[in-house]
Write a structure and sequence with these properties.
heterodimer; A: globular; B: Rossmann fold; OB fold (Dihydrolipoamide Acetyltransferase, E2P); 2 domains; elongated; cell membrane (chain A); Iron(III) transport system permease protein (chain A); transmembrane (chain A)
Chain lengths: 606, 396
């Protein structure tokens, strides 16, 4: 059957045509290509555009730079990095940002490790209950704490309703009320649960036989802790630290609320201020600096992961629930954990709630309490004549939130699954790794810089794309892009776990691509897909930085609505909206746990 | 009915310089029950996956019933969903979100078989595989053996002409293995399907297959019936790979300087020129004959070790530094440390040259040689004789 010619090695042309014949039957190739182009435009283009913006004379800056709009200039670089005001524009905010991030990492790590150990490895009283309660601060938006903080500690430095302590006659100093101390304090509260989750998981996965072996050899507990356990969970510690560091660099809402009154700027608020004052070129430089920090963090992370892979151990019989007896320290330990829950959960939420039902802050008398700010009508305030729950704007904002955040989460969840599919199935290795990397890129770019990038790219009509600013679409696509790192990672993880075989078996059975997706892949992946949609939804509801730059009043969402209420000094109403957001976020989390049955920990670790 | 022909089939994975499957040519006749046997990583599963169409070839050709389904030269590739070949995966790959019945009738639904007929065919195949009572269960609620029967039923329901099985018995425990082995034999007879399966386990291959293709490092070593492969290994790799306990190897070349050892004993009895070319001599453990009486054909040896293996015994013999293993079905009457006389009958000796290839038997044994040849050596099975001549050095 084989001719003599065919005995020879196939030519390059024959091989290429054969590869094409094979690839033709693999739709993942087409999907991969389309996604690659899509993300190049959605993610790469905004990032590149903001980098280019820092070298291009921006509209309105012709007089200052003595150059035409659009020509090449080093003006912004010089102005931000070397001029007389660069101290204010960049260096001080950079120092503040790094100080906040470092402080948060150090404190949340030290507290978090202790708490993780207490919850996972000791017989502390009320372990099971604390295991859940300790995670709550992470589900609440950071600025919930910031608002609670101002409700209590606000002083005369800024106008509006006074803080509770102020009205009780105690004047708080600026350093307690605003700036570095409260920002770090709040971020520590917020990120400690993350440490507990990641380190706790590592502790649980640790094979107790390794500790037992050391014990059999006669090692005392201290030696076991420092030479066995700690080195083994070091990768988890490092990844938690870097995750928190990267998040803190991009944190916007907390410094916005607590730093601005005393002109305590971070890079994120500096960027916002630059955009707000139409210094787009300077904003681009600041955004670039934030991205560089992100890239450095990621490089460190990659390096550490490589190192960590050296001692990935396969768990043996797993944990035999061996708990350290605390003895007399059992109750004090619970007291310590309880104090964290009190400060991190109970006090902020209670404060916020009380603030929404008090007419005058800090006056704890019965006639001062009212539910008017929730459900009242005919109030004598200028703009808000009804309680929040009766105000159409609130429901409009809530609806906008659900539509915008919901649809973007849905899109990013599906795209994430498709990315996972394309990455694992695509015949061309390059496309797969390009997709993997580009969908991870937004992780390096904090939301505020990303929003700035989107603004710079989509504010005006470009080619076939009309000007999107002012429409919900810019918010949706910006949110999709921002959520892609999580979505694609969980998509890739889910597809890896699924493996190729169920689909191959369907091919053998004669199923075409649509049958395979519709009857095999998507039904099996329903759980991960639901989680992949709900998790971005929750974090999207809490998010501030994208909205504050890209939203306009007609596309108001709950976060921007509450911040605007705050600006107008309707503190009670603003706090009520914040509580509603926290409620939605918490309900969403419960829903995820119901659907996936796994809990937040695994989802976050992806 | 389908005949599968592989011609110079080669597969080279990206980034690997060594091909995983190297110039394999073989024909699987209609209704044959063939095993691809080899150590792990020898490319046997890759061949199976290429036949199914899940992998594509790097060069060469696959034809099913003279229809080319994958050929680089003809730039032709038919995807698995159009080949109508059944493949049962090693770990079954059942769809976890479907019941047993839905798993089984999935292929029929795709073929738009009317509901009534579908139901009948499903019940029929599930009945034959004795999984009818689990029809409404999910795969996770089944044991390994049941899962495997579901995986088989899923493929048999669409009645493919060819059934490919990847390590069909490896995931089962001892009892189930025997049961499943009988089941597969029965299926082969009932359905008359051509079956190709992959195994690294010689027991599995010997007991199931009509024909065995031994592979190593991506290359075909020998094709033949289980008996042929055992009795007349075409090279040193096959000799060593097949047989438990392992065949005894006696190096002939290095031993010339030593005065008396097993090798010199063997050489002394070989007069023909061929034996001078031989580098290694081999003998199956059960072919060694132990006697109390010394003759000119025997070698005095010491019993070092007697290992009962349940129904048979393995005896370790020593002569100087040489060690030989003997196996027997009858209870040995000697004890460890006893002196014994071992006869290594010339007809039982296999000789291999420097490259590990089998050397033809000497004149003395022509008779036996003829006997073996006439018994069963179908001509097509040596179609790829050239590729059985692989240098031994690489295989060590």
């Amino acid at each position: 059957m084989l001719t003599a010619a065919e005995q020879k090695k196939p030519t390059l042309w024959q091989r290429a045509r054969h590869l094409f014949a094979v690839a033709r039957h693999e739709p993942a190739n087409l999907i991969g290509l389309v996604l690659a182009i899509f993300f190049a435009y959605l993610i790469l283009a905004p990032v590149l555009s903001i980098l280019v913006d820092s070298f291009i004379v921006q509209s309105g800056d012709e007089a200052r730079t003595h150059q035409d709009e659009g020509s090449f200039t080093l003006y912004y670089i010089v102005r931000t990095l070397y001029s007389r005001i660069s101290e204010i524009l960049l260096w001080q905010p950079l120092y503040n940002t790094l100080a906040i991030a470092a402080g948060t990492v150090v404190f949340s790590m030290s507290i978090g490790v202790v708490l993780a150990w207490l919850v996972n490895r000791t017989n502390m009283a009320g372990r099971a209950w604390f295991a859940t309660a300790l995670i709550v601060p992470f589900m609440l938006p950071t600025w919930t704490f910031a608002l609670a903080w101002t409700t209590i500690f606000k002083n005369r430095t800024v106008g509006g309703q006074p803080g509770w302590l102020e009205s009780l006659g105690i004047t708080t100093s600026n350093s307690v009320a605003y700036g570095y101390f409260p920002i770090v304090f709040i971020l520590v509260l917020h990120y400690t649960p993350l440490v507990i989750l990641i380190v706790g998981n590592a502790l649980r996965r640790l094979d107790t036989q390794m500790e037992d072996s050391a014990r059999v050899l006669g090692a005392p507990s201290r030696t076991i802790a420092f030479s066995i356990v700690l080195p083994l969970i070091r990768p988890a510690l490092m990844s938690a630290a870097l995750l928190i560091f990267a998040d803190c660099i991009g944190e916007f809402a907390v410094p916005y609320i607590l730093g601005l009154p005393v002109r305590y700027d971070t890079l994120a608020t500096g960027l916002y201020r630059a955009l707000d004052t139409r210094q787009n070129g300077v904003a681009a430089v600041i955004a670039a600096v934030i991205m560089i920090i992100g890239v450095i963090t990621l490089l460190i992370d990659v390096r550490m992961m490589k190192e960590a892979r050296r001692f990935v151990t396969v768990g043996g019989k797993g944990n035999m629930d061996r708990l350290r007896k605390l003895g007399r320290m059992r109750l004090p330990a619970s007291g310590f954990v309880g104090a964290f829950v009190l400060i991190g959960v109970v006090l902020p939420l209670l404060t916020l709630f009380l603030s929404t039902i008090m007419i005058l802050p800090g006056r704890f008398t019965l006639e001062n309490f009212t539910f008017d700010y929730w459900i009242g009508s005919n109030l004598d305030t200028v703009a808000l004549s009804k309680g929040i729950l009766l105000t159409p704007e609130f429901w409009q904002a809530a609806w906008n939130t659900i539509v915008i955040v919901g649809s973007s989460s849905m899109i990013s969840g599906v795209l994430g699954l498709l990315v996972g599919y394309a990455v694992l199935r695509c015949s061309f290795k390059g496309v797969g790794s390009f997709l993997r990397q580009i969908t991870f890129l937004p992780y390096l770019v904090p939301g505020i810089a990303f929003a700035a990038a989107f603004l710079s790219l989509f504010a005006v009509a470009r080619g076939p794309i009309p000007a999107l600013y002012g429409t919900p679409f810019i918010l949706i696509i910006a949110l999709v892009a921002e959520k892609m790192p999580f979505a694609s990672r969980s998509g890739i993880a889910a597809m890896t776990q699924l493996g190729k075989e169920p689909e191959e078996a369907a091919r053998i059975a004669g199923a075409n691509w649509f049958s395979r997706m519709g009857k095999i892949v998507i039904p099996i992946q329903a759980g991960p897909l639901a989680t992949g949609i709900l998790l971005p939804f929750i974090s999207g509801i809490k998010g501030v930085s994208l909205f504050i730059i890209l939203a306009i009043p007609s596309t108001d969402v709950l976060t921007t609505y509450s911040l605007r209420l705050l600006d107008y000094n309707y503190d009670q109403a603003a706090n009520a909206v914040v509580l509603m957001i926290a409620l939605i976020a918490w309900l969403g989390t419960v829903l995820i746990q119901k659907i996936s049955g796994t809990g937040l920990a695994q989802g976050l670790e992806n | 009915m389908p005949t599968i022909t592989l011609t110079n089939l080669t597969k080279c994975y990206d980034g690997n310089t060594e091909p995983s499957v190297n110039q394999v040519s073989l024909t699987v006749e209609d209704g044959e029950f063939m095993c691809l046997l080899g150590p792990s990583g020898c490319g046997k599963t890759t061949i199976l996956r290429m036949i199914a169409g899940i992998e594509h070839s790097t060069s060469g050709e696959i034809a099913v019933d003279n229809l080319v389904v994958d050929s680089v030269h003809q730039s032709c590739f038919i995807p698995p969903e159009q080949r109508r070949i059944g493949l049962v995966f090693q770990n079954y790959a059942l769809w976890p979100h479907m019941t047993v019945e839905r798993n089984v009738d999935f292929g029929l639904r795709l073929q738009k078989v009317p509901a009534q007929e579908r139901k009948e065919r499903c019940l029929d195949v599930m009945g034959k595989l004795r999984i009818l009572e689990y029809a409404d269960r999910y795969p996770s609620q089944l044991s390994g053996g049941q899962q495997q029967r579901v995986a088989l039923a899923r493929m048999l329901a669409v009645n493919p002409g060819v059934l490919l099985l990847d390590e069909p018995l490896s995931n089962l425990d001892a009892t189930l293995r025997l049961e499943m082995r009988a089941e597969l034999r029965r299926l082969h007879q009932t359905f008359g399907t051509t079956i190709i399966f992959v195994s690294h386990d010689q027991w599995e291959a010997m007991t199931l297959a009509n024909t065995i293709a031994v592979m190593n490092k991506g290359q075909l070593q020998q094709i033949g019936t289980p008996d042929e492969i055992y009795a007349e290994p075409s090279n040193r790799f096959v000799a060593e790979f097949i047989g438990n306990p392992k065949i005894n190897l006696i190096k002939l070349k290095e031993s010339n300087d030593k005065p008396i050892n097993v090798a010199s004993h063997i050489l002394a009895r070989q007069s023909q020129a061929e034996s001078r070319l031989a580098e290694v001599c081999a003998i199956r453990p059960e072919e060694i004959i132990l006697t109390d009486n010394a003759t000119s054909h025997t070698l005095p040896m010491t019993i070092e070790n007697i290992m009962p293996t349940g129904g048979s015994w393995v005896i370790e013999l020593s002569f100087g530094e040489d060690r030989l293993f003997h196996s027997t079905q009858s209870r040995p009457k000697w004890r460890e440390g006893d002196q014994i006389n071992a006869n290594l009958p010339t007809p039982s000796l296999h000789f291999f040259d420097h490259d590990g290839n089998r050397l033809a038997l000497t004149d003395n044994d022509k008779e036996l040689d003829n006997l073996l040849l006439s018994s069963a050596l179908p001509s097509h099975k040596y179609a790829n004789q050239k590729h059985t001549n692989q240098p031994y050095a690489k295989q060590a």
